[in-house]
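User: I'm putting together a small comparison set for a docking exercise, and I want a reference complex before I start. The sequence is below, and the ligand is fe (ii) ion. Could you produce the 3D structure with the ligand included, as structure tokens?
Assistant: Of course. I'll restate your input first, then give the structure tokens for the complex.
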Amino acid sequence: MLTLDFFITRFDRALRTLAAPAQAHRVSPARALPNTELTPEQKKHTARLMRINHTGEVCAQALYQGQALTARVAANREALVAAAREEEDHLAWCEERIQELGGRTSFLNPLWYAGSLTLGVVAGIAGDKWNLAFLKETERQVESHLAAHLESVPESDQRTRAIVSQMKTDEAGHADLAQSLGAAEFPQLIKTAMRLSAKAMTQTVYWV
Ligand SMILES: [Fe+2]
Ligand SMILES: [Fe+2]
């Protein structure tokens, strides 16, 4: 049942995602590795890539919030909580690495959060299998996007690479989870539309 309490809790979650430092449940994979010397250009470029990944993780928070709002099958909801916790780790790790690199997060995060929440809720209204289809396709696209980042992050930046690699592994697991919970498969047209909007997001966030 959607009570006032329920909405207050969601609003509180949104504020915490956007305004408070994220709390990790697992130690960042970067911590075990040396902070290698990078040129100012390498630092700037990598901080911008991590800003994109951070915004992606803000969207993931909204997406999983949307799942919680609309998932009809309680067992699905519970299974997704574990994945959502991993997304909180990603958010915290990205934040930490951006700080180390002397960068900043995107000014537009509230906008991306609201957009993702809306899309997640719309997919959820269509039913659990479409909600999960949206999640699965998002995770697959994020996974290939992170693979592209691994091509672009300097070889010497072991800390950033460790974070991006672990995120990539986790996102693949989330896509498999959505599949195992009964995700439908989107038509190619929707996948392409999602890829294009993600491209617009990543290209904007690289700069702002
Ligand atoms: Fe993530
Ligand atoms: Fe994920």
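The chain has seven helices and no strands. The mean pLDDT is 90.
User: Thanks, that's exactly what I needed.
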